[in-house]
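Lecture 7 notes: from sequence to structure.
We start with the chain below.
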Amino acid sequence: MGSVAWRDEEDAFLAGEKVKLRSRVQVAMGEFIGELIKPVTLFGTFTFDPLNIGMSGPLVSGERREMLALPTVSRWCAMRRFTYFLNHASKVVGRPVAGVIALEDHRSGQPHGHGVLGTEGPLVGGDIGKLSLLWREHRGNGFIRLEEPCSQEDVTKYCAKYMAKDAGELVFSRLLASKWSPGRTL
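Predicted structure tokens for the same chain:
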């Protein structure tokens, strides 16, 4: 009888330590990405629009939504589109842009991304619009939200919340890939 209580207590202790460890890893990963991109100029949310994929037949929006119960953009395709965006962002704004985008699943099962971007120099009028157009110009890409961080603390919190969930599914821009790649020491 006493051993069951001890095991329950031990399981509760280990569960609590696991939560603490995950939190510390998320903060460390957030700080790492924030420093890697420094200075972070923009936070980004990248979505896909299944109604913009191009289906055959005369369907209205509601019917399409019911038919599209499964994700219409695979995780592999989402990662490729994030890579395309990051690799072309510098050309669109006319100066180097470094970035990282993390893949995440929405409750609907559709993938989407959360990213941080750093531009060489401050944002110039029209940069956000140009980057938004780069994302939206491709069929199937949906909403994009780009916003400037208020502080370095915001960057760390954002990275810890969105980038450290699954560090295995991150897309790095070419500028960062040349500085660092997974499996290579700094």
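Points to note: The mean pLDDT is 78. The two ends are 52 Å apart (CA to CA).
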